[in-house]
Amino acid sequence: MSDSLSLGMRLFRRHPARPPGPKSRYPGQFLVTLATDKLALFGGMAKSGDVTQIIIGPQPVALLSHPDDIQTMLVTRQRSFVKGRALEVTKVLLGEGLLTSEGEQHLRQRRLIQPAFHRDRLTGYGASMTELADRQQRSWNANELLDVHEQMMRVTLAIAGRTLFDADVEGDAHDVAEALELSLRMFNRAILPMGMLFEFAPIPWVRELHRARRRMDALIHRLIQERRTEGRDRGDLLSMLINARDEEGDRTGMSDRQLRDELITLMLAAHETTANALTWTWYLLSQHPEVEATLHAELDRVLGGQLPTAADLPALAYTRQVLAESMRLFPPAWAVERRAIEDVEIGGYTIAKGTVVLACQYLVHRDPRWWRDPERFRPERWTEPAADRPKFAYFPFGAGTRICIGEHFAWMEGMLVLATIAQRWRLRYEGATPPAPQPLVTLRPRDGLAMRLIARRGATAGTS
After folding, report:
1. What H or E segment, with its residue span, contains residue 158?
2. Which residues contact 180 (CB under 8 A, 6 or more apart)?
3. What DSSP letter does each residue of 216-260 carry, written as one string?
4. Going by DSSP bridges, is the β-strand pair 51-56/443-445 parallel, antiparallel, or unpaired?
5. Residue 427 bridge partners (DSSP)
6. CATH number attached to the domain at 1-76+334-370
């Protein structure tokens, strides 16, 4: 009896159990919730433990909620995973860009792109970021009610055009923004089982999507051909990517198709994610006047009414804390998805080959085990000791070899735009209920974000 029990214990350790998880109350419940309220679905899963699993149709879906287990997926055992279904869907728009490519191709592309994001080169983009943010705010009028999300999308699109292509894409902004918007709409449907069929459906918005993509691709390819013909370095990312050679590999550069895929990927990342981070920041500041007052005091002291530069960023410590805290509560990249390509043991459970595995920044960033007063917007927390907080309790830019290559770019852009606008304006949210987050590829406010402009420093009209 004793030997049998010992053998049973060893077998149990060799074959850990499948993860637990909530049970559906009716057929198709999880599928419906995935389509209508992803945050509620994953929040419900997290209540079952640090490693949980449900079945959606034939697909097992696991959620990791402990930072140590997330580190296992993204770093320690990252070779046991590939990108998940959600990013497979985005290939329709992004192609084989840095976000979607795998294996050797991903490593090669990252080697080619990495120099474009070195700190010294990034510093040169700071002036454009400030200039374009200032130009945007000078079109505003005191007491005007405007959609701040739309405004932030405009300014970050302008910055992406200038820094990626050394071009003023404002004239083409509608085509780019429309293609991205329609693609995100399709993404929300396409991640559902059989959802990719929407790509071929003969319905009006799908036809609009294809037309918008063709216009966007025409713009990108025109810029690539113009730059190749010029043959000179304009100091932008496109010039560097055209001239880049894989010195550790075959010493060749990127084809036009590779350039297109990387530029679309970088444009989405530089445009969409930063716009969302800034949008949520304006909302949080409007709800916490004491934080806003501290931010304004720092900007007045450090900048003295002058536009910020990259050289000012080290002195804008509280500005960075505000942005960090905003990305804690409303992370633009709200979840990371992978697919297991072999059986993996995580947290004492077996994640079976083929399982879609998720780590949700939106939930982990609000977990009371790692964060005191987790729902409270408190930038000061970033000056407090964090020795008892696991490293992966905060991962707004991902981790491992696939950590966001533009992290430093995003910090600089977010801080400079925030500092430029907050010097002259206070933004007030007048809605009766808080804005609802919409988790698509990124975390947007569902219906935009209408806010009232209150002038600072005598800024009373768009021409001031």
Report:
1. helix 148-165
2. 93, 268, 271, 272
3. HHHHHHHHHHHHHHH----SSHHHHHHH---TTTTS----HHHHH
4. unpaired
5. 453
6. 3.30.43.20
Query: What is d(CA 38, CA 358) in angstroms, rounded to the nearest whole number?
Result: 12
Strands 145-147 and 437-439: unpaired
For 293, residues 6+ apart whose C-beta sits below 8 A from its C-beta are none
| The dihedral formed by the CA atoms of 142, 143, 147 and 149, expressed in degrees to the nearest 10 | 50
Against a cut of 0.85, is the pTM above it?
A: yes
CA dist 164 and 167 (Å) reads 8
Distance CA 268, CA 143 (A): 31
Q: Is the dihedral of CA 149, 416, 274, 240 positive or negative?
A: positive
- Scan for tokens 């049970």, then name that residue: 23
The strand pairing partners of 344, in sequence order, are 351
Distance (Å, whole) CA 381 – CA 419 = 20
- Residue 52, CA distances (Å) to 37, 64, 72, 445 in order: 18, 7, 15, 28
pLDDT at residue 216 in the model? 78
| Residues 134-177: tens digit of each pLDDT | 999 999 999 999 999 999 999 998 898 888 887 776 666 566 66
